[in-house]
């Protein structure tokens, strides 16, 4: 997979497409074509290569197909080749500063979409997501606690400190989990309204024993600080979940 990513990144037009999505996520094909001196078909070919490498994801919103930057593979390369030992919460706060310093257009479309393929069954992924003993292995040493019923609360604890809280908005084990989300102890998030995090867990259509895990963070029009932290934090969580389920170890282990 790393070879596919490096090959995809080698082309300057594809890097330009990723730069566009980094600047403003959730773009249509027409929007992505505008800055490039390429045919519509040429841009589609580049987008297909990026999607096959896992660097972007797509979602249908109404009649449009929108494209989103998938930070998980880049995060994995960073962890593997650059710095395994970076403090994740510090990374999140750096991203928060960058998010607050740049003008961001907020709308009702999904904004942050991350996806990863894990060699595990959906039931194993669900257990890892909902079992506090397992979440602590990949979610920044945090244990997630809930009764796992619709409209029940959930909390994310790091030792004796509560990091986040929310409500189960929808639950369909082992395929779908929708949470409201609010940080309670990270600086800069005190005035943020609750946002929404959706976990979609689907068997891979072509690879037996492989599960696609997609996390969508949206409804954060009044939670810019939270959005900045999760934009960088969710790829780390997904990378950690993959490492834990496939190897039994943690990212730093």
- Please give the share of residues in helix: 25-40%
Strand line-up of the largest beta sheet: 3-9-8-7-6-5-4
CATH architectural designation of the largest domain = 2-Layer Sandwich
CATH class identity of the largest domain? Alpha Beta
The average pLDDT value, as a whole number, equals: 85
The total domain count is 2
Write out the CATH superfamily name of the largest domain.
START domain
- Name the beta content range: 25-35%
Order of helices and strands: HHHHEEHHEHHEEEEEEH
> What is the β-strand count?
9
Pfam family, one: HTH_20
Domain HTH arsR-type: 1-89
Family: Belongs to the AHA1 family.
Protein name: Metalloregulator ArsR/SmtB family transcription factor
Q: Can you give a write-up of this model?
A:
Residues 1-89 form the HTH arsR-type domain. One of its GO terms (molecular function) is DNA binding. This is Metalloregulator ArsR/SmtB family transcription factor. It holds the Pfam family AHSA1. Belongs to the AHA1 family. By secondary structure, the protein is of the alpha+beta class. The protein folds into 2 domains: 2-68, Winged helix-like DNA-binding domain superfamily/Winged helix DNA-binding domain (Arc Repressor Mutant, subunit A), CATH 1.10.10.10; 73-247, 2-Layer Sandwich (Alpha-D-Glucose-1,6-Bisphosphate, Chain A, domain 4), CATH 3.30.530. Helix content is 40%, strand content 26%. It is built from 9 helices and 9 strands. It has helices at 2-9, 12-23, 29-33, 40-52, 72-82, 88-101, 122-130, 132-135, 224-247; strands at 56-61, 64-69, 112-118, 143-146, 153-158, 161-172, 176-183, 195-203, 211-218. The strands form 2 sheets. The chain has a 7-stranded antiparallel sheet with strand order 3-9-8-7-6-5-4. β1 and β2 form a beta hairpin.
């Amino acid at each position: 997979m790393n070879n596919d990513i490096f090959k995809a990144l080698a082309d300057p037009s594809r890097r330009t497409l990723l730069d566009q999505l980094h600047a403003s996520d959730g773009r249509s094909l027409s929007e992505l074509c505008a800055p490039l001196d390429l045919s519509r078909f040429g841009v589609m070919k580049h987008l297909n290569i990026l999607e096959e490498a896992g660097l972007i994801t797509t979602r249908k919103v109404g009649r449009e197909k929108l494209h989103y930057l998938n930070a998980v593979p880049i995060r994995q390369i960073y962890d593997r080749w650059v710095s395994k030992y970076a403090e994740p919460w510090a990374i999140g706060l750096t991203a928060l500063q960058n998010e607050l310093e740049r003008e961001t257009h907020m709308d009702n479309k999904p904004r942050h979409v991350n996806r990863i393929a894990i060699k595990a069954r959906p039931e194993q992924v669900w257990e890892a997501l909902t079992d506090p003993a397992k979440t602590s292995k990949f979610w920044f040493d945090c244990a997630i606690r809930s009764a796992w019923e619709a409209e029940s609360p959930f909390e994310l604890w790091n030792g004796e400190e509560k990091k986040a809280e929310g409500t189960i908005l929808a639950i369909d084990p082992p395929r779908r989990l929708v949470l409201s989300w609010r940080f309670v102890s990270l600086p800069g998030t005190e005035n943020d309204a609750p946002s929404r995090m959706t976990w979609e867990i689907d068997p891979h259509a072509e690879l037996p024993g492989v599960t696609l895990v997609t996390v969508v963070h949206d409804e954060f029009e009044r939670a810019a600080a939270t959005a900045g932290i999760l934009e960088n934090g969710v790829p780390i969580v997904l990378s950690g979940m993959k490492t834990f389920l496939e190897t039994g170890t943690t990212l730093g282990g």
